[in-house]
């Protein structure tokens, strides 16, 4: 009888253990499955993020610029002398006007991109006193201009210089400008002005951006003929591009795209493609 | 003793087979798969007790807000994202409507009638389409409420481009277009070249959804036309407006236009 009781008890215990184990397996499986699903999502996101990090997401650097320097140094006024910059492949020859720390910072970022062979690098500029270096002072310090209609639509705090490493002798340059933020009504008013301004800017954009895009070139007054192309052929990422010859006969390129409340500009189609690839849609 | 051992072996065998065949049986038992229809828009498809992976119990319910997939418990179809209408706190089921309230009225079926590949089908626009002012107001409201998250629930505060477009249309009182860009393309009144022609002809109306190829990434991108030449869509982590030309300049070609219908 004792044996039977023991056996019955044993059976009950065994069944309970098995039931518990089966339940645990079920719960565990479900839990793992859910975790796996989440992990998979995370992995996908992570993979995507990794890919983005490696191939798309820009390598961004915040470069501090001592403030104020430009205005006090007399290179910041629109009518002031335009600093000259050399983008010689020999790093040691890179120089800007003494004391123009915006130029120094810009050239320093250029050097870094060259040394690091960074295929894509975005640089934003901060001042030490203010949280940002106003776009106005960035433009003035580098001696570049933006069509006034376009300029009026731009945010003073959110802009970036772009460097695209091509080879040891060439780093292409770009610029990312952001539109002033606001509500929908704001953009309804802003976009017609922007789009008209961009068309108007095509006439002078080569010479306006000469100091960062073509520091060694001079241009005559010929208006470039822009045409529509695609950064990612056959039909993705529409860009406006033009190529003209400088006075030495060398081909010079400017391309741009206006989307996502930004204006993306570059002095090579490859660099413009990299910029757009680094700023993809928020899809799905 | 031998008899008991055989019984035990039999039970163990059954349990092992069951455990292998239905690993999530512990969660399945209280769940009712509502199936197609689900009782209509806003209908409560059932309620019960869900056992979480951690072993805790919580009340659950589900309601159908226009999508068949909302009827699927996610653990029966893990590919379906957890829908916004699955509640885990025992609250009454509700579906979002214009103004952010809840409703159990109307049909949740997509208002987009099956379109033609050629786009020859001319959709019959119902009266009471969105005015540009209404569309702008909705765009401003949702721009403040939504951040970008791929696959996110449109009513959770974080969603993707098609989730934002769906939220925009449904909150504006329109028929639910679909949750994904793929389904939006399938059900669109105008597809591919017909969609492009429709846009070029200047026929876009506030609330219409444009789906195009995504720029820089695989997949599609959706935006809502809000009038005045503007498209509201997700960009750089948030939802904002840009010009139609700006919107169309990125990504691949236009794939579909879903008309706003009530």
UniProtKB/TrEMBL annotation, chain A:
Transmembrane segments: 12-32
Superkingdom of the source species: Bacteria
Alphabetical UniProt keywords: Membrane, Transmembrane, Transmembrane helix
Keyword Membrane among record annotations: yes
Keyword field contains Membrane: yes
Protein name: Uncharacterized protein
Organism listed in the record: Candidatus Portnoybacteria bacterium CG_4_9_14_3_um_filter_44_9
UniProtKB/TrEMBL annotation, chain B:
GO molecular function annotation: cysteine-type peptidase activity
Region annotation (Disordered) ranges: 98-138
Record carries keyword Protease: yes
SUPFAM superfamilies from the UniProt entry: Cysteine proteinases (SSF54001)
Gene Ontology process terms (BP): proteolysis
Residue span, NlpC/P60 domain: 129-261
Biased amino acid composition, Low complexity: 104-129
One protein family per Pfam: NLPC_P60
Keyword terms of this UniProt record: Hydrolase, Membrane, Protease, Thiol protease, Transmembrane, Transmembrane helix
Transmembrane segments: 7-26
Family: Belongs to the peptidase C40 family.
Identification of the protein by name: NlpC/P60 domain-containing protein
Species in which this protein is naturally found: Candidatus Portnoybacteria bacterium CG11_big_fil_rev_8_21_14_0_20_44_10
């Amino acid at each position: 009888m004792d044996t039977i009781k023991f056996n019955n008890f044993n059976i009950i215990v065994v069944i309970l253990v098995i039931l518990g184990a089966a339940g645990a397996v079920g719960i565990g499986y479900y839990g793992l499955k859910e975790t796996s699903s989440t992990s998979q999502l995370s992995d996908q996101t992570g993979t995507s993020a990794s890919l983005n990090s490696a191939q798309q997401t820009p390598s961004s650097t915040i470069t501090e610029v001592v403030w104020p320097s430009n205005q006090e140094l007399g290179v910041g006024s629109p009518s002031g002398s335009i600093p000259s910059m050399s983008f010689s492949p020999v790093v040691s020859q890179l120089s800007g006007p003494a004391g123009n720390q915006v130029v120094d910072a810009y050239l320093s970022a250029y050097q870094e991109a060259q040394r690091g062979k960074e295929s894509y690098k975005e640089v934003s500029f901060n001042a030490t006193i203010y949280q940002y270096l106003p776009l106005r002072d960035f433009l003035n310090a580098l001696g570049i201009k933006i069509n006034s209609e376009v300029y009026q639509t731009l945010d003073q705090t959110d802009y970036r210089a772009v460097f695209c490493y091509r080879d040891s002798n060439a780093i292409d340059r770009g610029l990312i400008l952001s539109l002033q933020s606001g509500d929908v009504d704001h953009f309804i008013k802003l976009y017609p002005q922007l789009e008209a301004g961009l068309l108007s800017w095509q006439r002078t954009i080569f010479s306006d951006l000469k100091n960062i895009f073509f520091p060694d070139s001079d241009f005559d007054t010929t208006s470039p003929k822009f045409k529509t192309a695609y950064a990612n052929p056959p039909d993705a990422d529409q860009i406006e591009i033009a190529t003209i010859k400088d006075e030495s006969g060398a081909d010079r390129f400017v391309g741009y795209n206006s989307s996502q409340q930004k204006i993306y500009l570059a002095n090579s189609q490859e660099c413009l493609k990299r910029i757009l690839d680094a700023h993809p849609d928020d899809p799905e | 003793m031998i008899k008991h051992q055989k019984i035990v072996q039999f039970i163990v065998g059954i349990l092992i087979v069951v455990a292998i065949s239905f690993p999530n049986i512990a969660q399945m038992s209280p769940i009712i798969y509502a199936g197609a229809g689900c009782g209509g828009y806003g209908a409560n498809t059932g309620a019960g007790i869900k056992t979480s992976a951690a072993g805790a119990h919580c009340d659950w319910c589900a309601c159908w807000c226009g999508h068949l997939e909302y009827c699927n418990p996610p653990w029966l179809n893990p590919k379906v994202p957890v829908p916004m209408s699955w509640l885990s706190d025992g609250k009454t089921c509700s579906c979002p409507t214009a103004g952010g309230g809840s409703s159990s009225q109307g049909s949740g079926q997509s208002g987009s009638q099956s379109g033609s590949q050629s786009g020859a089908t001319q959709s019959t626009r119902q009266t009471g389409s969105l005015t540009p002012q209404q569309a702008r107001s909705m765009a401003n409201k949702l721009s403040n409420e939504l951040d970008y998250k791929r696959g996110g629930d449109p009513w959770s505060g974080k969603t993707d481009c098609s989730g934002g477009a769906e939220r925009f249309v449904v909150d504006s009182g329109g028929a639910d277009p679909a949750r994904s860009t793929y389904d939006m393309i399938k059900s669109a009144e105008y597809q591919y070249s017909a969609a492009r022609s429709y846009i070029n002809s200047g026929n876009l109306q506030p609330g219409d959804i444009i789906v195009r190829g995504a720029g820089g990434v695989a997949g599609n991108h959706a935006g809502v036309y809000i009038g005045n030449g503007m498209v509201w869509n997700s960009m750089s982590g948030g939802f904002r407006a840009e010009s139609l030309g700006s919107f169309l300049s990125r990504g691949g070609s236009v794939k579909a236009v879903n008309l706003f219908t009530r």
